[in-house]
Every structure is written in structure tokens, then in C-alpha cells.
Amino acid sequence: MATTSNPLESELQTLQQQAQEAIATVPNLEELEQLRINYLGKKGQLSQILRGMGKLSAEERPRIGSLANEVKEALQASLDQQKASLQTAQIQAKLAAETLDVTMPGVSRPLGRLHPLNSTIDRVLDIFVGLGYTVATGPHLETDYYNFEALNIPPDHPARDMQDTFFLADGRLLRTHTSPVQIRYMESHEPPIRIVAPGRVYRRDTVDATHSAVFHQVEILAVDKGLTFTDLKGTIKEFLRQMFGEELPVKFRASYFPFTEPSAEVDVQWQGKWLEVMGCGMVDPNVLKAVGYDPEVYTGFAAGLGIERFAMVLHKIDDIRRLYNSDMRFLSQF
Ligand code: 2NL
């Protein structure tokens, strides 16, 4: 049978050629899908050509039919292949765009540190904990009894003048020292006791380079059978040796506190000067009685120090207010 050229045949061939070219150069998946609809869709170009098959003779119909099928399969194969390669390209582009540059400098967050007052408190506590003391804390808002009366400071005692503070209308007050913590601890514990009480305290003071209405204290208290002034001296000398990092000349000067008898101020010679660093004494029998301890059986010693004063001496700080200003240029030096 002779093969006669048929217009449908060349139309199919042209269609295939054009379609292959278009598919090969399509830039993205969306346009590729448009091409598929355009060529192979229900109303696409191939369908339109096939509509003309009704006019073909019975001999020609199978030949054109199978040619149409070949074109359809070829185009479908090209579409599939191009789809796969565009998808791969899309993934590659996405991966390239999301590449992590490990050589890029990071966002730096400045490291925080302890405030010099807190690091000084921590050093003091560490030393006393090393000597067998237990840390105790208590309320800042106190009653007159715990802040004054139990400490042998009756209502009209002149020592109240130096410890004027802030009062609430109901008579409660902001504690002027951490001693109330020790009173509370003694009320709830039997001797022997060894405690160290750190914390914030308050006084009605006019602020200047060496005074603040809010400051920090650490007090120690030991009560046991047979404790003497020698135990107090040895404890304080060992504390100061660890605090200043070497054995310094230490002087105990007679002094007065309502809650100790005898009482002393402690001076250390440091960098050529005598510095007053703490106060101390043997616990007054009246204080022991107030918490229900028998002063004929037990004796005790106590000491107190101002943290600001210690920090200022250790770090050569000239003005107490620098400790409260939150100026990082100052604080980051410690
Ligand atoms: C100072 C002096 C001192 C005490 C605090 C105390 C506490 C109790 C009983 C007896 Cl419960 N004493 N504390 C004793 C002597 C001195 O502090 O110059 N502080 C900054």
C-alpha cells in the first residue's frame, strides 16, 4: 500500500516539533503546565487535530491514529522529563538561597556578672560557711521588739537616735540591722548555734559619699557553752585573713553596742592605713534571756560588718553612690 502524504500527518509533525521546542525552553513549572494544557488538554491542539480524523478514509485512519498516539506519548514523555528537571532545579535554587553562612559573625550578647555588693556578700558568706556557720535570712519589715527591744534597746535608749529608720503607721519599721534575723533564729533553735545573716538594712540617713539610707550588712552569731572573747578574736582574725588574702595587723578597740558586753571595733592595717572594718562583742546576757537562753549556761559572740564599706575598701571606691547608680562603665570593672 502506497503511503500518501496527508495534511493531518504534517500538522501532527509540526505540532510535535513546536511542542518539543516549547517544552525544552520553558522556564518554570507553571508555564510547563500551561504547555501541557495547550497541547494535550481536552481542548488542546492535539485534540483539535484529531477532530479532523472523521474525514479520513478507512485506510488512513489507523495510520494517522497511531501517529497521533506516538506524538501524544512523545510529548507526555517530554513533559514528564522537563517537569522532573524543573523540580530538581527548584529544589537546588531553594537550597542555595537557604545556605547557612557559618563564617558570618554572630550576634554577641554581653555577659552579665555579679554586682560588686553581691560578690562581696558571697565572699563573706563563703568564709563563714567554711568555718561551720549556717546562712540565715529574715524579713526586712520588722516589729519594734525584734529590731530593738530584744536587742537590749528599750524605747527611750539613746542608741535609737543613731538607728532612726522608716516607720509604718502601724508601728512596724524597716530593720536597721540584720540582728532581728538572729533573734528569730535563736527563738526557734537551741544552742549550740553558729549563723551568718546577710541582707539589706535601712537607716534614716542623709545620703553623701559615705552614707546611704539603704545598705547591706552581714552579721555573725555563735552561742554555745564556754565561748569566750578569745573565740571571737580568733574567728574575726581568720575571717579578715581570708578576706584580705594575707595576715594583716588587727586591732580590737573597746567600744559600745547595747547588745554586746564587752564590745569592740575592729581595725585592720591595710596599704599603710588603719581602717575600721567591723564591730563585735560578747552577746549581752539580756539578749540571751530575751530568747529564752540561760546566760549562766551559755555565752555567745557576735559581729557585724557593712558590706558597702568592705567593698569600698577592697576596691578603692571613693563614693558609696557609685554602687547604686547602675553605671556599667563603673560596674563592669569588678
Ligand atoms: C557593726 C557592728 C555588730 C552585733 C552587730 C549582734 C546580734 C545579736 C546579738 C548581739 Cl542577735 N550582737 N550583732 C554585735 C556587735 C556588733 O555590728 O558595726 N555593724 C555594721
TrEMBL record:
A biological process (GO) of this protein is: phenylalanyl-tRNA aminoacylation
Its Gene Ontology molecular function terms? ATP binding; magnesium ion binding; phenylalanine-tRNA ligase activity; tRNA binding
Q: Name one GO cellular component term.
A: cytoplasm
Q: Which Pfam families match?
A: Phe_tRNA-synt_N, tRNA-synt_2d
For the Aminoacyl-transfer RNA synthetases class-II family profile domain, which residue ranges apply? 117-314
The record's listing under PROSITE patterns reads:
AA_TRNA_LIGASE_II (PS50862)
Query: The organism sits in which domain of life?
Result: Bacteria
Q: Which CDD domains match?
A: PheRS_alpha_core
Q: Which reactions fall under this protein's catalytic activity?
A: tRNA(Phe) + L-phenylalanine + ATP = L-phenylalanyl-tRNA(Phe) + AMP + diphosphate + H(+)
Q: Which Gene3D superfamilies match?
A: Bira Bifunctional Protein, Domain 2 (3.30.930.10)
Q: Which Enzyme Commission number(s) are on file for it?
A: 6.1.1.20
UniProt: Mg(2+) binding residues? 261
Cofactor(s) listed in the protein's UniProt record: Mg(2+)
Location(s) in or outside the cell: Cytoplasm
Assigned protein family = Belongs to the class-II aminoacyl-tRNA synthetase family. Phe-tRNA synthetase alpha subunit type 1 subfamily.
Q: How does it assemble?
A: Tetramer of two alpha and two beta subunits.
The protein's name in its UniProt record: Phenylalanine--tRNA ligase alpha subunit
Species this protein is from:
Rippkaea orientalis (strain PCC 8801 / RF-1) (Cyanothece sp. (strain PCC 8801))
Tell me the organism's taxonomic lineage: Bacteria, Bacillati, Cyanobacteriota, Cyanophyceae, Oscillatoriophycideae
Primary gene name: pheS
